Each structure stands twice: as structure tokens, then as C-alpha cells.
Automatic annotation (TrEMBL):
SUPFAM superfamilies: Cytochrome b5-like heme/steroid binding domain
Family recorded in the similarity comment: Belongs to the cytochrome b5 family.
Domain Cytochrome b5 heme-binding: from-to ranges: 259-337
Tagged with keyword Heme: yes
Protein name as it appears in the record: Cytochrome b5 reductase 4
InterPro entries assigned: Cyt_B5-like_heme/steroid-bd, Cyt_B5-like_heme/steroid_sf, Cyt_B5_heme-BS, Cytochrome_b5/Flavoprotein_Rdt
Listed Low complexity bias regions: 112-140, 160-169, 178-187
Compositional bias of kind Basic and acidic residues: 40-59
Domain of life: Eukaryota
Length: 351
């Protein structure tokens, strides 16, 4: 197409140079007034030529219509050449635009046999208007590159392995969670990961709380206190004041009586009943506990459980921390001896 167009242009130029048609001179004269519309030439009889219907008036000789740039597109009405062989057209119709110099595609007509001036005839389907010419010209030219609105290339969302080199490869983004994870078939691949959760669910039984402290068996539950209400004036402080007085004698023995050797049989008769005092042996020593019964925090009956016998084991089971020696120093009778030892000592005294 480009070659054909160029050849047409070249042929037109050659023709204009050699023939110099009169209409071209008028064209040059009117070139400087582009808004002027040149009236189409009239036929010899003076009637305007019907350019739309293609009818020719007069002798049928067709005059070209030169259309310059006009205000409205309706004025652009080119004429169609008859293209009859042998009919010499003075000039081919040309449509000129000041901005775009386009030439209609008109193939060179065969020269007339009589050797007249070569004429040009329009092709079978010439553009009918300047816009059509422009369209045809644009169609003849290579189409411009279409505007590209392509966005910056985003990374391929697919997670296929890229074919680039390893140096240009970037680590793929983390796989977003998809609904496929809900598929049992898909989750079956991650059973090894779901196992701990299922184990944790199975290990935690309903009703158990992880916030509750674990059960401990190291601390014994506190025993309820077995202390009793003491009579007024019989507090531990009152006992301490009474027992440490130098004038107080709590043994209930004749004055000046030394410490006695008490045998278990003798101790057994001192139970605090039948008018006798209550004696007990603690750590090999014999104490008269009768004055302390009213001051015992654990109560009298508890204290008298060891009267008339050795109360060392029972005492240690309840309150081994109690300093009985200091508390009962003024109540000490003597030493607990084996049976027969008191007699042996009496015989030694007789000797
Ligand atoms: C003869 C010597 C004894 C002395 C000097 C003595 C002294 C004491 C003292 C000072 C307490 C108060 C302890 C405290 O406040 O923590 C006490 C409490 C007690 N005693 Fe004795 N006691 C004697 C013998 C006994 C015996 C032979 C028994 C029982 C068979 C006994 C049973 C108790 C009980 C049950 C308590 C109350 C413990 C508690 O706080 O729950 N005591 N005694």
C-alpha cells in the first residue's frame, strides 16, 4: 500500500509539473485564503453539477471540485469521477487539508489513445471525506503501538517452581491459608502436625483445670487445737509465777525431804486418786503433777493420763518441745529406780 501511494504521489507530481493545469493556478491563488470555499465550476450551460448523484450536466465533461478546509464537515463533498475511458478529466479531485497532506489513492489511468494529457481517475472506493481520508491514511500506515496499561508485573500467584536461575530466585511467599485445609484429604497430609493437638485434647479431660495447683501430700493438714479453757488465775504465766517462787513447795512432802528413789511400784500407787497425789516419771525423774493439773493447757484429764506411771513416751508424742524440766522443777520428787534398788540403798544407809 505504501508503495502504491508513493507511486501515485510521484505520478501526480510529474503530471502537475508537466501539464500545469489552470485549476492548480487557482488553487495556488486561493491557498492563502484557506477558509474560502471555492464554488464548483459550472458547466458550459451554467448549471451546477450534481456531485452527489454523479450525474453530469452539459457535455458530460467533469470538472474537479476543490475543497479546502471548511467550517463544517458537510461541505466536504468530493465528486466521483466517471472513470470512463477516453474521457479526459481536466484535473483529479483532490481534497486538501492544511494540517495533514494526504492524497487520495488514485491509480494512474491509462493514457488516452489520442495522446492527450494523462488523467487520473479515482479508485473504485475512494474515501468520501477528509475524515475517511485520514482514516485510510492511518490505515495505510503501520498501526501505532497500542497504549499499554499493563500494571507492574506482580509475582506469579501460582506456586510452581520458577524456571529462572537460582541466583535470581527469591523465596516464595508464605502460602496463605486456603479453604483447602478444611478438606480432609488435604489435612491428612498434616496428620503428623495435628497429632499433638489431638493428644493434648485427649490428655485434657473435661472438668480438669490447668490452673488448679497440683495435689501435694507433703504437708499434713493442721490438727484442730486441743487446748481447753483454763480457770481465771491458771494461765501459763500464772503457773510460771507460782513455780519459780522460792517459798513455794509443790512436792507435798515433809519439809527437808531429799529426792526420793521411786520404784515403779511406788509410782504406780501415786495416781491422784483416793487422796493421793499424782506422780509421773519423765526422763527418769519423778514429778508430783497434782499442783499443775489446774494449769495444764490441754486439760486436767489429759495430764492425768500419765499419772502413776512413766509418761515419757506419751509426753513426747504430744508436745516434745515443751520444757517440762523448767516448768516442773519445784514439783520434783526424786529419781525413778528399778525395783529393789530403793531397798539396796536403804541397806547401804543401815550399813
Ligand atoms: C506432766 C507434764 C506435762 C506438762 C508440763 C505439760 C505442759 C503442756 C503445755 C505447756 C502445753 C501448752 C502447749 C502449747 O501452748 O503449745 C500443753 C498442751 C497439751 N498437753 Fe501437756 N503437759 C504435760 C503432760 C501432758 C500429758 C501426759 C498429756 C496427755 C496424755 C498432755 C496433753 C496435752 C494436750 C492435749 C495439750 C494441748 C495441745 C494443743 O495445743 O493442742 N500433756 N501441755
Amino acid at each position: 500500500m505504501a508503495i502504491v501511494g508513493l507511486s501515485l504521489v510521484l505520478a501526480s507530481v510529474v503530471w502537475v509539473v508537466f501539464s500545469r493545469p489552470p485549476f492548480l493556478q487557482r488553487l495556488f491563488a486561493s491557498f492563502w485564503s484557506p477558509r474560502q470555499i471555492e464554488q464548483p465550476p459550472r458547466d458550459h450551460d451554467g448549471a451546477p453539477r450534481d456531485t452527489e448523484s454523479g450525474k453530469e450536466g452539459g457535455d458530460g465533461v467533469r470538472s474537479p471540485v476543490i475543497i479546502t478546509t471548511t467550517e463544517s464537515a458537510d461541505d466536504e463533498k468530493p465528486t466521483h469521477a466517471s472513470g470512463t475511458p477516453g474521457v479526459v478529466a481536466p484535473a483529479p479531485p483532490t481534497v486538501e487539508e492544511p494540517s495533514s497532506q494526504t492524497t487520495p489513492k488514485a491509480p494512474a489511468a491509462q493514457p488516452s489513445p489520442n495522446g492527450s494529457v494523462p488523467s487520473f481517475s479515482l479508485s473504485s472506493s475512494p474515501p468520501a471525506s477528509a475524515a475517511a481520508i485520514a482514516r485510510s491514511a492511518s490505515a495505510a500506515m503501520p498501526p501505532p503501538a497500542p497504549p499499554t496499561f499493563s500494571a507492574p508485573k506482580m509475582p506469579d500467584p501460582s506456586f510452581t517452581t520458577p524456571s529462572g536461575s537460582a541466583s535470581s530466585m527469591m523465596p516464595p511467599p508464605p502460602r496463605p491459608p486456603t479453604l483447602n485445609n478444611l478438606n480432609p484429604a488435604a489435612t491428612s497430609r498434616n496428620n503428623n502436625l495435628a497429632a499433638p493437638n489431638s493428644f493434648a485434647r485427649s490428655a485434657r479431660q473435661p472438668g480438669t483445670s490447668t490452673l488448679a495447683p497440683p495435689p501435694t501430700h507433703s504437708s499434713k493438714p493442721a490438727k484442730p487445737s486441743r487446748k481447753v479453757m483454763l480457770e481465771p488465775g491458771h494461765s501459763p504465766l500464772d503457773w510460771a509465777r507460782l513455780a519459780q517462787s522460792p517459798t513455794s513447795d509443790l512436792r507435798n512432802l515433809p519439809a527437808g525431804t531429799p529426792y526420793l528413789k521411786v520404784t515403779p511400784s511406788q509410782l504406780k500407787t501415786m495416781t491422784g486418786r483416793r487422796g493421793k497425789d499424782a506422780w509421773t516419771a519423765l526422763g527418769g525423774r519423778v514429778y508430783n503433777i497434782t499442783p499443775y493439773v489446774a494449769f495444764h493447757p490441754g486439760g486436767g484429764p489429759e495430764l492425768l493420763r500419765c499419772a502413776g506411771r512413766d509418761g515419757t513416751r506419751l509426753f513426747g508424742e504430744i508436745h516434745p518441745w515443751v520444757n517440762y524440766e523448767g516448768m516442773l522443777a519445784s514439783c520434783m520428787i526424786g529419781m525413778l529406780v528399778e525395783e529393789g534398788e530403793e531397798r539396796k540403798s536403804e541397806m547401804d544407809d543401815m550399813d
